[in-house]
Amino acid sequence: MELYFNELSIKNENSISHESVVFMAETYKELTKHDITTCRISPEDNAKLFQMIDGMPNSINVRNFYFSFFRSPYETKTVEENQDEYYEHGWTYNGEECIGFALAYLLDSASFSLYGAAWKDAFIDVLKDGDFIKVRNICVKAHVDMHIPQIRNIGAVELVACDMKISDKKIVLRDDHGKDKLEEFSRRLIQCPYLVGVVNSLPYNSHERKFIRRVRENGLVEIVLPWTDKGYGVVVKTTGRTIKETKKIAEILEEEYGYM
User: In 25, 158, 172, 197, which residue has its Cα 20 to 30 A from 223's Cα atom?
Assistant: First the structure.
């Protein structure tokens, strides 16, 4: 598990208080008890934050953990798997774009903020398009004990099966070349108990080598048949109520149907 740095906590700041550094060190120590040792941060913010800390009294002790905790860049394989979802929406806090908060929310994690009046709360209200969402925020030791056990419990996903008969599940496909192959494959797919139906065909993805192309909100999963020359694909509706549930269903689909 990794945290994501709230870049707004150092925006327009040129210095850092001794109190904030103390809270940072205490919080890091508490995080290590849960085997959490990494906070993702952009290279620019990483350099800026280190410069703010370096040269302060007792900065040597901070440097002992700084480079193992703050790691650039934000982008990892896990982040890249969710980047389409990030780019599809606007993520703002008080009118400012907020990358760290968005990634923390999308990846069922938490942001890490420097302690300050604006960031001392355990949850931060962020605007996702036109709706407010609550993002877990960590800046003091108490936040670690509050959030981490709850986040770890999220991992226990309980899937809900579709109560429709297989014969009632709809298959909707565009009248394109390859429809016969997609029709045949879709009839296999709808046997999955967590599938509600096939809602559309995908444009050709001839260079796509992954079976699961994308997991979307509202229980939607994009699937590509990489063994076809043109990369035929479908969009399916699952019973997933959250991104985490839908990802789990996508894993099941790949395991059961991700082959010819």
Answer: 158
